[in-house]
Amino acid sequence: LTREGFSSVPNVTWDEVGGLDNVRNELKNYVVQSIKNPKLYQHFGVSSKTGILLFGPPGCGKTLMAKAAANEAEANFIHVKGPELLNKYVGESELEVRKLFARARHCSPCIIFFDEVDALTTTRGREGGWVVERPLNQLLIELDGADQRQGVFVIGATNRPEVIDPAILRPGRLGNHVLVPLPSAEDRGLILKALARGKPIDPSIDLTEIGKRKACERLSGADLNKLMEDAAMIALKEATRSGNPDEEKMLLCTIQPSHFDQALEKI
Ligand code: ATP
Description:
Layout lengths: L20 H16 L1 H6 L8 E4 L6 H12 L2 E6 H5 L5 H15 L3 E6 L1 H5 L3 H4 L4 H12 L7 E7 L17 E4 L5 H11 L11 H6 L8 H21 L5 H4 L6 H10 L1
Parallel strand pairs: 1-4, 1-5, 2-3, 3-4
Helix pairs in contact: 1-3, 5-8, 9-11, 11-13
The structure holds adenosine-5'-triphosphate.
């Protein structure tokens, strides 16, 4: 597994996440606080072991927010893609799941983030001629072994919640289900502001207004990121096209409203 070879605390902070207050709060309650204040959870008899399933359309911030939660909790983060785990000889996937949880226990507190968790938990006997029951069973065993799971928290992510085996969605397993929707008009403005951090945005730009434009309807966070990059690239080209060899002057150029207008026309 390429991504699985290391684990560390991600450097993504909540400042980089725009909007989605509801999801943010759920992650803070279920994950961050239970890592930071385990005694409080015990006191109220709230299980801190139940995992979270983040579901919703692609590119809306599931991975980003899982990382921000790990960062706030100062927990290690292991990013696993469901299909990567399955890309093994028969029997090896189970072993991989076991090794994964063992590694997470070694570096606890640790969050295991299962991206495309549906791949691991769908019975695909009809489609591909092979079944994923064995790794799924191993995953259920690991999730149920909550007592041995000290300091290991599980977040799953999927775009296809409907194909997930219901066994894994039960309380105690990935029992908290949180929708990560396409951003609202207001959230699009907040996402653009988060994405603008560190970029030379001209003060005349109103990102809240841009987020509300018709052309931005139904754009995901990933689409808005592309919009921001395109606008920056148009500004950069303009700065260099002026034939101004003076780098100092070019570094004073900013991203202007017209650059956003042009970038939006492309979408
Ligand atoms: P997938 O289901 O395809 O894995 P995802 O929901 O996990 O997608 P992310 O990988 O978290 O989506 O988001 C992709 C990129 O889109 C982020 O790296 C970020 O640049 C941008 N993005 C998405 N949502 C937000 C947000 N709420 N605030 C700021 N940036 C965002």
